[in-house]
Amino acid sequence: MYPCHGGIDQVWRWQGAMLVGHGRMCLDMSAAVLGAEMRTAPCRVGMKSQEWDYEEGGIWLPTGRLRNRLHPEYCITAPLFPYVENDTVSVRLTKCSQGCAELWIANALKKDHEFAIDSYPRLKAIPEMQDNSKSGRVLCWVMTTPKNHATKAVTLRDTWGKYCDILLFATTKHDPKIINGTVVLDLQGTKESRQLLWEKSKLMWMHVYHKYLGKAEWFFRADDDTYVLMDNMRDYLSSLADPTTTTHFLGRRFYSPDSDAYFYGGGSGTMLSQEALRRLGTAVAHDTNDTIFSPYDTFADDLEIALTMARLGINTTDTRDKQGRNRFLGVGLDNERMTNKKTNPDFWLWKYSADAREGRECCSTRFVSSHYALPDHMRYLDDAHDAKCEGHGTEAY
Q1: Per-residue confidence at 312, pLDDT binned at 50, 70, 90?
Q2: If you average pLDDT over every residue of the chain, what do you get?
Q3: Strand 63-68 to strand 104-105: parallel, antiparallel, or no bridges (unpaired)?
Q4: Is the pLDDT of residue 109 over 50?
């Protein structure tokens, strides 16, 4: 098994229940030993060992199991890396067990398209909104840009964004035909760029303070490629002290040696409790000398908000679970699991998170958020969580 690259040797056609690969070679159960690597053989119409049933499920993507028609108790199983370090290249035939390694996504390489409001097809109904009576209401605001409205923003809105009590998009252009809840930020005529992320962040935090302080107990800032398991977030928040009287400041903690400061990586999200936002907004509203918010333009709004909160006596905290695994995944779920110091010693993660764990121990089984989730990956994570294969409190594999 190899990383997807779109080459002809990785393209399989579904033809009369057969999986037909390059050179008219078909996936053939008779050429495999139970528990061993799968093999191909010349395609033969009507040969049951080459015929497979695809048990489709999932909310968004065609995700399901491949069962052999000759022996329907047998399924095709993916390798277990990084959970089993040396199991990296084998696609095997095993007895079906309802395990997550049996799930395959059809058309996994399809291009992300732009979709108008509510036009992306769902395969089944999405789960209902989670109860917020214990955790409190969550306002989610998402840093985005007009070029991402019809792709990333729409997908975020239709996946995890549906479970926010209030969902806002911080951008520079109203786009009501595509997304609602846009907050147009006034950059004083300056062309939008990554260097203005801190400026956009300052404007948005103050907008939320002035307009929404009493309408939620928690305020979560995300990027448009952040994916969140809102049920896990609510469970985590419900374990914390009263957000209306306690200054909670949450996220994935990193350390910047250049600034000698701890901060939360913006990509996996930053959370303020109502009391923390109240103190921030009040201090900034009465600050006439720019001593609270730094006046300089920078892309590092995640570092700047941490420095700002520190000026108010509100510092970062350890948000890992009881086993010391991260709830907020700053470099993305797959990267967190697969990156290790031995093969990638210069990866920036080790500089900013020296205590980061590798492999299975990297991430909480009830993780809250993951960075670098493009639209199809967001839909995949929705499906995986719905199938109890990701973020459900037990090891999926």
Answers
A1: very high
A2: 85
A3: antiparallel
A4: no
Tell me which of 58 and 155 has the higher pLDDT: 155
In angstroms, rounded to a whole number, what is the distance separating the alpha carbons of residues 66 and 75? 6
- pLDDT for res 30: 80
What mean pLDDT do residues 266-285 have?
Answer: 96
Query: For residue 166, what are the β-bridge partners?
Result: 139
Per-residue H/E/C for the chain? CCCCCCCHHHCCEEECCEEECCCCEEEEHHHCCCCCECEEEECCCCCHHHEEEEEEECCCCCEEEEEECCCCCEEEECCCCCCCCCCCCCCEEEECCCCHHHCEECCCCCCCCCCCCCCCCCCCCCCCCCCCCCCCCEEEEEECCHHHHHHHHHHHHHCHHHHCCEEEEEECCCCCCCCCCEEECCCCCCCCCHHHHHHHHHHHHHHHHHHHHHHCCEEEEEECCCEECHHHHHHHHHCCCCCCCCCCEEECEEEECCCCEEEECHHHCEEEEHHHHHHHHHHHHCCCCCCCCCCCCCCCHHHHHHHHHHHCCCCCCCCCCCCCCECEECCCHHHHHHCCCCCCCCCHHHHHCCCCCCHHHHECCCCCEECCCCHHHHHHHHHHHHCCCCCCCCCCC
Amino acid at 344: N
The residue-averaged pLDDT of 234-256 equals 96
**50-53 LR contacts (CB < 8 Å, sep 24+):** 50/18, 50/19, 50/26, 51/16, 51/17, 51/18, 52/17, 52/18, 52/19, 52/27, 52/76, 53/17
Q: Give CA–CA dist 81/367, Å, rounded.
A: 19
Sort 342 into a burial class: Cβ within 10 Å, 0-12 / 13-18 / 19+. Answer: exposed
State the Cα–Cα distance between residues 379 and 112, nearest whole angstrom.
11
Give CA–CA dist 371/162, Å, rounded. Answer: 18
Distance CA 182, CA 174 (A): 6
pTM score = 0.85
